[in-house]
Structure formats: C-alpha cells, structure tokens
Specification:
The protein has nine helices and seven strands; from the N terminus they run ααααααβαββαββαββ. It has 434 residues and is of the alpha+beta class.
Length: 434
C-alpha cells in the first residue's frame, strides 16, 4: 500500500536530520581512517588512502552544499533522491577502496536503504535497493573478470581468486538482503507513519471536542435566554399588525421584523442543535438503502438538479446503528456543503468502505474549490464560514451529532483540489435478524 506523499515540512526536517547524520558519519570515517593510517605496519601513504581521504573531503563538501541549498529547494523528494543516489555511489567507492569483494563495508548499503525507507517509503527504498544491488554486482563483476584491481587496504593478504559459484552466491545474498531490508524497513516506516497520523488526528479530535463542548455549554444557556424574548417580540408584532390600522410603510417594517426574528430564531435553534443534539433512537440502518434514498432525494433539490452528478460506490452489505433522521441530516448537510463548494457544473462521489477497526467510512468527495490551508483547522468552529450567506453551523452540527454516536468526521482538502469528508461510524457485526 502506497501512502500519500510526505508532508513538506516533515520531509524537510528529515532531510535536515539526514544531512547532519551524514556529517557525523563522515567525521567518524575520517577519524577511523587516520587511526588506520597511523597504525599501519609500513606507515606509508598509499593510493588507497589517498582515494579514501578524497572521498571524505567530498562528503564534507557535499554536506555543506546540501545544508546550504536545503532551505532553497522546492522539490524535496527529488532533492532526497539525488542525495541518496550520490550516497550509494560514495558507498560503492568506499567498498572498492577497502577491499571490494572482501570489504567489510558492504553493510553500508543496508544503512542507505533503511534511511531511504524513512524518507521515501516503499517505492523509494525498493528503487534504492535495486540501485545498490546493481552497483555491487557491477563492482564484483569487474573485479572478477580482472577489469579493475581491488585495493589491498589494511591487510597483507592478496584477494584470492574465488570460484564463480561463490561470487554469484555472495552477490545474490547481498541483493536479497537489500530488498528484504527495503521491504521490512519500509513496512515499519509506513506503520509508524500511519500510527503518527492517527495519533495526530486523535489529538486534533480531542482538542476539537473539548473546545466545542466549552462553547456549547456556554452558548446553550445563552441561546435559551435569546429564544424566549424572540418569541415575545414576534408574538407582540403579530398582535400589533392585526390590531393596528393598515399602513403600507408600517406593514413593511413589521414584515421585516418578523422575517428577521424568524431567521434569528432558526439560527438559535441550529445553535442549540449543535450545543445539545437531541437524543435519537438507535436503529439498524442499511447503508445500501439509506444512502441511495438520501442521495436520490437530494438530487431533486434545486441547488443540485441539472448541474451536479452524484456517483455512488463502495462495499455492500454494511450496517450501522443510528437514528435514521440524524443519519439523513448528517449526509444531507455534507452533500449540501459539497454542492455549495462547486461553482458551475461538477461531481460528488459517495464511497462506502469497511475499516479493519470494525468501523465504516462514508466518504463524500467533491470537485469543488477546496478549503484553504489557513481555514482547515477552523471549519468545525461554530459560526465560522467563508460563504456570504452561510451561518457556519452546518459542519459543527454534523460533528456534534456524530460525536453522540461515538463517531467523528475527518476532512482532507486543499485549495483548488476538492474536499473529502469522511464519516466514521461503528459497524454492526451482522445485519439484524428479520
């Protein structure tokens, strides 16, 4: 399973960590090279040491350039690939200088693959595993056929002429190890990433619930205090309108007062619905039936009819326990939100999937304008809206209703990329008995 691309700021942090770690490794390699040089029996400065010192200097220079260009890079994934491919070439040179086929540093290929899986996940780690295998195979083949002469670094024993079966065996084992490490390390990295995203989502959900609960408790009492005077004002105006002689100007003013009072009363009612959703009666709901019914009714709405195509799909035979009226209200609000995000013609997709966590996901995706990044953390706040005639309570009400059923709402969006709202509800283990 391929995950979505790494968030930019997170990948930047990992690239910074990689550059720092490479500098530390280069310093350790430099220190060990000096130690070996000083303790060699002949204490000579042979060509192999010259190349190794050159590699170390090159790594220091590369680390400096990587650190300098990293804040200026806009394509972080490509930048990561460039660094890792160069690292693979450098490791191949280190292996060649330190004995080639007999070098003890072939394990560095595995180190490269491991940190590749942390940055680029499965696709990147498998690519680098193949590249490292190719480099090692080419190095050993050229040595075996005598096209290159390996260095005798740190030993007085010349490299023996190995049998080709043994050479092939070692190359195959090294390649298998590279791909095995790539697969396992990328699997662990992806699991860690999923867990981290789930924890972040859970933390955001908890903070959102706490904030909405505080706002709801404060607003519920205030809404009740507003609702009673509104009813008195509306009733008084109605009586005055009936008892006073008819006057065109006065009647127009009274109609405006009544209309605005009704609008304010509806707004207060919606806020009360957000603050204290009415307790519904849990009933088994077949998503195969409930979703098409709501979608079919919604397609007849004037805001949808003739310009929006709604596509339905996903897994069949799934059931949830919820008040049917609440379920229809949640789905209707999200469909309406999707329609209002689409300028002109467009489409909405409704997809149903079963989760491994014994939950059901209902995804409502639209082809609309999307939600800007600066607004994404505020869309569930009461009265927050970017629409000129919106109240900013629709998503807040949906969230509150789902919370009362141990469900929640997730959002994935970006400016000009459309929006996907995902309803999470507990899945019934089996359909109810007839």
């Amino acid at each position: 399973m391929n995950l979505s691309p790494e968030p930019r700021n997170e990948l930047q942090q990992k690239l910074q960590w990689l550059i720092f770690s490479r500098a530390i490794f280069t310093a350790l390699l430099f220190g060990s090279t000096i130690f070996i040089h000083i303790n060699r029996l002949d204490a000579t400065f042979d060509f192999s040491l010259f190349i190794l010192y050159g590699i170390i200097v090159a790594l220091f220079v590369l680390s400096f350039f990587y650190a300098f260009f990293r804040p200026r890079v806009r394509r972080e994934v490509l930048f990561a690939y460039i660094q890792i491919v160069i690292d693979s070439i450098v490791v191949t040179l280190v292996i060649f200088v330190t004995g080639s086929f007999d070098s003890i540093f072939s394990f560095l290929y595995l180190v490269i693959i491991i940190y590749t899986s942390m940055l680029l996940y499965r696709r990147g780690s498998l690519f680098i595993a193949g590249l490292c295998s190719l480099f090692y195979f080419a190095l050993v083949e050229m040595e075996y056929w005598g096209w290159i002469r390996p260095f005798d670094f740190g030993s007085k024993i010349n490299t023996p002429n190995y049998d080709w079966q043994y050479v092939l065996y070692k190359v195959v084992i090294t390649s298998v190890a590279c791909f095995a490490v790539a697969f396992l390390s990328s699997l662990l990295a992806e699991q860690a990433r999923r867990t981290r995203k789930e924890l972040q989502a859970m933390g955001a959900r908890v903070r959102r619930v706490e904030k909405m609960a505080a706002v709801g408790e404060m607003g519920a009492g205030l809404a009740h205090e507003i609702k009673n005077p509104l009813a008195s004002i509306s009733g008084s105006i109605q009586l005055l309108r009936e008892e006073m002689p008819y006057d065109v100007g006065r009647d127009k003013l009274m109609r405006i007062i009544l209309r605005e009072a009704d609008r304010l009363s509806a707004l207060v009612g919606n806020f009360l619905l957000f603050a204290r959703p009415p307790s519904g009666k849990n009933k088994p709901i077949s998503l195969d039936q409930a979703i098409p019914e709501t979608v079919s009714l919604f397609q007849k709405d004037k805001r949808c009819r003739g310009r929006i195509q709604i596509h339905q799909g996903g897994q069949k035979g799934l059931w949830v326990a919820m008040d049917p009226d609440h379920f229809r209200q949640v789905l209707w609000n999200l469909l309406l939100n999707a329609v209002e995000a689409i300028d002109g013609e467009g489409w909405i997709g409704v997809q149903v999937e079963s989760e491994k966590t014994r939950q059901v996901s209902i995804m409502i995706k639209d082809s609309g304008c999307g939600i800007p990044e600066k607004n994404i953390n505020h869309i569930f706040d009461p009265f927050f809206t970017s629409k000129p005639d919106g109240t900013g309570l629709g998503l807040s009400i949906v969230h509150s209703i789902l919370e009362s059923y141990n469900g929640w709402l997730e959002v994935d969006s970006g400016a000009d990329e459309g929006t996907t709202f995902t309803i999470k509800l507990d899945r019934m283990a089996s359909p109810p008995a007839p």
